[in-house]
Amino acid sequence: MRNALIRYRVMAYVVGVMLIVLTCVGMPLKYIWHNDSVVTVAGIAHGWLYMLLIITAIDLGRRARWSWLRLLLIALAGTVPFVTFVAEHYANKDVQAKLAWNEAHPTEPEAVIADPQG
């Protein structure tokens, strides 16, 4: 689950930064100065990277056993500037808590395998 979390966090930051560039740099350039080059490049990049974010979020959500509602909210967070970072923070917090709990409470099959007398 740790590797899935790392992949998701990287994609969340990349998508969040691309969306900020698109909205805070590209849109003013397009609508004020009539230069749509940044919108074209950042828009296409954000679209493709957003699809990778969805894939990494589903992978992490499956491993962390998130509800479909939580996955939907995390997916939608990639479409609102700055909200991606908030969603990433809460996803990271949740997964870190689950990882800590799993380390403190080993599962039953592992305990049975580790006990030579059991």
Task: Tell me about this structure.
The protein has 118 residues and is mostly helical. It has one domain (2-114). It has helices spanning 2-33, 37-64, 68-77, 83-104, 108-114. The radius of gyration is 19 Å and the shape is elongated. Mean pLDDT is 88; it is low at 110-118.
Poorly predicted runs: 110-118
Q: Please summarize the sheet with the most strands.
A: none
Give the CA-based shape.
elongated
Please identify the structural class as seen in this structure: mainly alpha
**N-to-C SSE string, H for helix and E for strand:** HHHHH
Summarize the amount of helix as a percent range: over 70%
Count up the domains: 1
What's the pLDDT, averaged over the residues? 88
What is the total tally of β strands? Answer: 0
Total of helices:
5
Report the portion of residues in β strands.
under 5%
How far is the N terminus from the C terminus?
Answer: 28 Å
Radius of gyration from the CA trace? 19 Å
Jot down its keywords.
disordered C terminus, mainly alpha, single chain, 118 residues
How would you sum up this structure in a few lines?
With 118 residues, this protein is mainly α. The chain is built from 5 helices and no strands. The chain has one domain.
Write the layout of secondary structure elements.
Layout: H1 2-33, H2 37-64, H3 68-77, H4 83-104, H5 108-114
